[in-house]
Amino acid sequence: MASISGPRMPTRSRRSPTPPTPAPSDDEPVHWKSSGRLAFATVLTGGGIALVLASLAGVALGSVTVPVAEVWATLRFHILGVGSAPGDLYAMIVWQLRVPRVLAAVLVGAALSVAGAVLQGMVRNPLADPFVLGVSSGASLAAVAVMSSVSALWIRNLGVPVAAFAGAIAALLLVLLFAEHQGEFTGPRIVLAGVAVGQVAAAATSLIQLRSEPAEIRGILFWMMGSVAGAELGALTLPAVLAVSCLAWLLVQGRGLNALSMGDDDAVALGIDVNRLRIQLIVIVAILTGLAVSVAGGVGFVGLIIPHIARFAAGSDYRRLLPVSAVLGAAFLVLIDLAARAIDPPNEYPLTIFTAALGGPFFLWLLKRSRSGGAV
């Protein structure tokens, strides 16, 4: 895969690495320490406001428009336990149908965006996204096997979310197995192993689809292109805990991520155990991708688009980039889900139709900027 230098992604210095291992806190680039703090606060606040407004729109709008007063009354009654119970129709629409799917979109958008930002820095390739590692393809294969009648009964009994997560972990183990070389992992080997595992998983998925009953094909295709229509509040608890835990761990590792994005030599000079950190990051990316696929199926391009927008807005310091990516990704997918069900009610369309319509031109724009010498 061609490598295109990220614009504001830290680049390796032409000077030789400092011979003695420096004190990490004294050797961090100055712009990671001091610049962009006001911009970061502004961007994060703006992103948070956009997320709240998008979520309210996602709950209120759709095939049936719910007045804002009814939305507020329903949320206040169920969350705070105050006020009177709203009418049955609005309560069902708001609390049982739209709140779960909005929360699922928030969770999936944030998880995919953070995973994409980490992966782009880890392999130093701004065209990378969570699907590159083959984790999503592995999760899709397991989920489709559960949904198809041609699979064994014990597989179908697993349930789609459990199977998708197990498929993601299995794909990750294969990627690590093939990427390892003399005890080391490099970015290019991880990408190549991920592409190979992803292609094999995609071929197996296609085979299962061809052997499935015609009545099953529509559901399989819809799930593979992403949807949060079937989200349930109770089923989101564990994925949400996992996502928050992964983001917290990544923020703690922000300095290591910054160093790794500069290159292995610079990271080693800063005292980073590159192999250990890279394996840990792969596991975190797999968990985030697996939980996103288990909740909403295959949703493409979110992990490619949002990290670039967040990097333009908040800079390359991962301690700022990750929270901004999470907030912007969540708001983005909530709006995508709203468009998917509001553009032709009562019909709903898969999410990837809309993310691909935006992500394809964005990908070509990245290529054009790199070819013209501009920063990506």
How would you describe this protein?
The protein is mainly alpha-helical. Helices cover 71% and strands 0% of the residues. It has 17 helices and no strands. Helix 6 runs antiparallel to helix 8 and helix 8 packs antiparallel against helix 14. The longest helix has 36 residues. The N terminus is likely disordered.
**Through-space gap between termini:** 16 Å
**How many DSSP helices?**
17
The portion of residues forming beta strands comes to under 5%
Order of helices and strands: HHHHHHHHHHHHHHHHH
Question: Shape, please?
Answer: globular
Mean pLDDT: 80
- How many strand units? 0
Q: Could you list the spans in which at least 5 consecutive residues all have pLDDT below 50? A: 1-35
Task: Give the proportion of residues in helices.
Answer: over 70%
Radius of gyration: 21 Å
Q: In this structure, how is the largest beta sheet organized? A: none
Structural class by sheet pairing and helices: mainly alpha
Helices and strands in order, then pairings?
Blueprint: H1 24-27, H2 30-33, H3 37-60, H4 68-80, H5 88-123, H6 135-147, H7 153-156, H8 160-179, H9 187-211, H10 214-224, H11 237-252, H12 254-262, H13 264-269, H14 274-296, H15 302-314, H16 318-342, H17 351-371
Helix pairs in contact: 3-5, 3-16, 4-5, 5-11, 5-12, 5-14, 5-15, 5-16, 6-8, 6-9, 6-14, 8-9, 8-14, 11-14, 11-16, 15-16, 16-17
Q: How is this structure best summarized?
A:
It contains 17 helices and no strands.
Keywords:
mainly alpha; disordered N terminus
